[in-house]
Every structure is written in structure tokens, then in C-alpha cells.
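Q: Please design a sequence for this.
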């Protein structure tokens, strides 16, 4: 992580913040077990999907009138991206989307989560929509539907129009929130005739702190805590305005909710006291975003802890922020806090994480499959929701191409098998998890790590743009076909 933070620091911060070997044809030969079933598997109708985001895959940053985003500028600053790459080309998905949709179909996925690049629709963030930008998403959505895949749209996956950063300081100003509401209205008006599910902002828990607090993500600022708290509040406000815009301008029945990297808390040991402590911890550790969205107030402990640095807000804002949502999207990769009961403070104690705790090939990606059991279970209880989607889960890996041209990513399979088994355990107990989006369909631009960290089910050669299914693509295809984790 060069000049700014060491890998270890990054891992720590990331922890705090949220956070097929065959050709497609051969894959079709890998025999999935029997058809979808209920007993011992996921509920009937469970939504299986994969996910990507605009800046990470589209490329074509200067085409068809797209404006600049803060990530276009940020990746130009020397030393910011570990391998010096950027999203200029990425996966060329803007041009190769049909090929990529065929890959989704090959997995048997019935859903695909993608994001709209705000600066493609509004090159300056506001004003008149760019018809060519809209055209692209119309074509993408039509192609998905033609292939029997439901489009799940994210409004904001971090590519803020640079113009809004320049004019208003980005999310520092509520002007940006209002303009985001207008952009959301435009998307709702033009696309919800076919898009039935909309995620508002992706991972406030990361882009606020990393972008404005410690300068790791765009726009690369290091502001004091009070400002960061205000910006987080603004992101919650933007979420609420987008919910209202979708209700007002979208087709009736369009469903909308957040996609948040919930701070994942789990009991260190499964006792009634610790489970209760984990429940309290989940609410408190997510007080700055998810909880205020779901409850319409900041918790006493949050306000006490923030002290003079607490965000400034009005009751009217809290009302907007807590506009009712249809589902909770949770991005869950790794345990953030193992907790035990405590008679101190709010009633829980987060335990220090030992240095030897196992992780995948990203330091922050600690292996804690039971988070896919506890977090949705406790979240459903605390926020009384009847629809949770795992909007992201997955892992990076070394993913070496072997001399036979194949990628045997048994580590990713190990990770997925264990996480999915725990998710299945949750659904078998009646926890209302309705779907799962695996991050990611294919290797792509992994932000500060550039093209070097590979999260895909499909390997991408970024020189030739050839996509090759990893062994995990066959694994996932089998899970979907069986509708079961298949431990
Ligand atoms: C969360 C983000 O939403 C996504 O953009 C990122 O690539 C994955 N996690 C993996 O780090």
C-alpha cells in the first residue's frame, strides 16, 4: 500500500469499516445434482445472482458522452493504485456486455446486480440526461431479460461525477444529496419498467471513511471526524431521497433498499448471553448508517461516543433517511467483531482479533463463514425485516492459470462452500434471506488494488480480454442447480 498505509493497517481499517476449469460448454457437462429442491437446501425461489459495478468493469470512460468520475481522477494520482492501473479499459464490458451476459447465463444465475455509472447519464452530475448513456443501460437490461436474467440495479457504486466533487465537495454537501435524488428519479422513470429491484448506495461504510477519512479511496481526503460523521449522515440522506424518488417516479411495486457492508458482528461462542451481546453490537456498530435508516434515530451510545463530532441534522432529515425500504441488502465478506457479553457500556465487548486469524489472499478477508448465519439472523430480528439479500459475498484468490490453461481455485470453493452452508443453515431456520449475489462474475478493477486482486468466477486476461471459467464457476453452477450449498 505504498506511501499511505501498510497492508496491515489496511486490513485493520477494512475490518473496522464494514467491510470452472472448463470452457462454458464443458461446464455444461459437469453434472449438477437433481433439480431444485426444498428439503436440505435453500427455499424455493431463492434468488441466485452475481454482481459487478460500473467503474470496475465497464471501461469506455471517454465514450458516448460519459463525464469524468472521481475514480477517473483519483487513479491518475501516482501511488494511489497498487499496480498503477485504472478503470479506463477494465473489462471492456461496455462493449462486451453480450458476451458477459452469456457467462451469467452459463452459471444458471437468474439475477445480475450491476450499477449505473452516474456520469454516463449525467456527465456533470445534473442537468439533462445523456441519451447515449441511457441507451447503454436499456440495451444491457434488454439483453439480460432476453436471457432470462433479472436486472438488479445499484444507483451508486462510488463513481461520483467529478463535477459534483469540484462544485460542491461531493458528499460533503447536501446539494449532492439532492442532485442524487434527481438522478435516482431519472433512472426510476426510464428503467423501472423492466428493473424491479433497486439498490440505493453501495457501502456507505466504506466509501465515506475510506474516501473522506483516510484518503485510501476517491476522492482521497483526510478530513476530521466531525466532517466524516456529517458525510456519513449525508450518505444516509441521499439513500432516503433515492428511496423517495423511486417511489415517486418508478413503476408501482418497484422494490428498493440499501446495499451495505454491515459491520458484521457474531458471538465468539454461542451462548444466550453472547448472542444477545452480538445483537446489541450489531445495532450499535451500525448506528451511523443502517440503524438510522431502519430506526429513524441515532442511538444514544452513538451520539455519546461521537460527542461534539456528532452529525448535525433535523427531524425532517431523519424522516427522509428512514423512508421505509422493501429489503435489506447486506454485503458480507468477513467477521468484523467477535463479541462476548459484558456488563460494561452498552452490554458487549468486541474481542481483539489474533494476528494468526486465518484470512484469504486479501488481509482483510478473514474467514468467518458463520457471519452468513448470525448477521442476517440478528439483522432480521433487530430491524424486523422480512427480506434480506446478500448483495455481495466472495473472495479474491491467486488464481494461477496452470499449464493446461485452467484455473483450479479450490480456495475460493472452500470459502464459498463454508459460507453458503451457513447461509443455508439460516434459511432453514426461517431467517428471511431471499437471495445471494456472488462477488464477482469476473475479475475486475479492485479499486486501490487495481487489476491485481481477482474476485471473479471467470478469470480475465486483461491484455486479451479473454474470459475463462475458474473451477469455482462450475461449483457455483452446481449450487444453483441443486439449490443447496452441498457440503
Ligand atoms: C465491496 C465492493 O462493493 C466491491 O466494489 C468490491 O470489489 C468488493 N467489496 C471486494 O472488495
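A: Design:
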Amino acid at each position: 500500500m505504498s506511501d499511505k498505509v501498510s497492508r496491515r493497517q489496511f486490513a485493520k481499517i477494512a475490518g473496522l469499516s464494514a467491510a470452472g476449469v472448463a470452457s462454458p460448454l464443458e461446464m455444461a457437462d459437469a453434472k449438477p445434482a437433481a433439480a431444485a429442491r426444498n428439503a436440505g437446501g435453500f427455499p424455493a425461489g431463492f434468488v441466485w445472482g452475481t454482481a459487478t459495478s460500473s467503474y470496475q468493469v465497464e471501461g469506455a470512460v471517454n465514450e458516448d458522452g460519459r463525464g469524468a468520475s472521481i475514480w477517473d481522477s483519483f487513479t491518475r494520482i501516482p501511488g494511489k493504485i497498487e499496480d498503477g492501473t485504472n478503470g479506463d479499459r477494465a473489462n471492456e464490458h461496455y462493449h462486451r456486455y453480450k458476451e458477459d451476459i452469456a457467462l451469467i447465463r452459463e452459471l444458471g444465475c437468474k439475477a445480475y446486480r450491476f450499477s449505473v455509472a452516474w456520469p454516463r447519464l449525467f456527465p456533470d452530475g445534473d442537468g439533462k440526461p445523456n441519451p447515449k448513456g441511457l441507451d447503454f443501460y436499456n440495451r444491457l437490461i434488454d439483453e439480460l431479460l432476453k436471457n432470462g436474467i433479472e436486472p438488479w440495479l445499484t444507483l451508486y457504486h462510488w463513481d461520483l461525477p467529478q463535477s459534483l466533487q469540484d462544485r460542491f465537495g461531493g458528499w460533503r454537501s447536501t446539494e449532492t444529496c439532492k442532485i442524487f435524488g434527481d438522478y435516482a428519479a431519472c433512472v426510476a422513470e426510464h428503467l423501472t419498467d423492466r428493473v424491479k429491484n433497486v439498490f440505493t448506495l453501495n457501502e456507505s461504510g466504506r466509501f465515506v471513511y475510506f474516501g473522506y477519512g483516510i484518503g485510501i479511496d476517491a476522492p482521497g481526503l483526510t478530513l476530521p471526524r466531525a466532517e466524516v460523521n456529517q458525510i456519513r449522515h449525508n450518505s444516509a440522506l441521499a439513500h432516503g431521497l433515492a428511496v423517495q424518488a423511486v417511489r415517486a417516479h418508478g413503476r408501482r411495486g418497484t422494490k428498493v433498499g440499501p446495499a451495505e457492508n454491515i459491520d458484521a458482528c457474531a458471538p465468539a461462542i454461542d451462548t444466550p448471553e453472547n448472542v444477545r451481546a452480538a445483537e446489541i453490537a450489531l445495532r450499535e456498530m451500525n448506528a451511523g448508517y443502517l440503524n438510522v435508516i431502519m430506526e429513524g434515530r441515532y442511538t444514544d451510545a452513538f451520539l455519546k461516543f461521537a460527542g461534539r463530532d456528532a452529525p448535525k441534522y433535523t427531524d425532517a432529515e431523519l424522516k427522509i433517511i428512514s423512508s421505509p425500504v422493501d429489503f435489506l441488502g447486506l454485503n458480507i465478506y468477513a467477521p468484523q467483531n467477535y463479541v462476548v457479553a459484558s456488563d460494561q457500556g452498552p452490554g458487549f465487548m468486541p474481542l481483539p482479533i489474533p494476528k494468526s486469524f486465518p484470512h484469504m489472499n486479501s488481509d482483510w478477508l478473514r474467514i468467518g463463514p458463520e457471519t452468513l448465519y448470525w448477521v442476517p439472523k440478528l439483522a432480521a430480528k433487530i430491524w424486523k425485516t422480512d427480506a434480506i439479500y446478500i448483495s455481495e459475498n466472495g473472495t479474491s484468490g491467486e488464481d494461477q492459470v496452470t499449464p493446461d490453461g485452467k484455473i483450479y481455485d479450490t480456495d475460493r470453493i472452500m470459502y464459498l462452500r463454508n459460507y453458503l452452508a451457513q447461509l443455508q443453515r439460516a434459511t432453514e431456520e426461517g431467517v428471511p434471506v431471499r437471495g445471494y449475489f456472488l462477488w464477482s462474475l469476473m475479475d475486475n478493477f479492485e479499486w486501490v488494488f487495481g487489476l491485481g486482486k481477482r474476485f471473479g468466477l471467470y478469470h480475465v486476461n486483461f491484455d486479451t480480454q479473454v474470459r475463462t471459467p475458474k473451477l469455482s464457476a462450475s461449483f457455483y453452477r452446481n449450487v444453483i442447480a441443486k439449490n443447496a450449498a452441498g457440503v
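Q: Thanks. Anything notable?
A: The chain has one domain: 11-482. The two ends are 37 Å apart (CA to CA).
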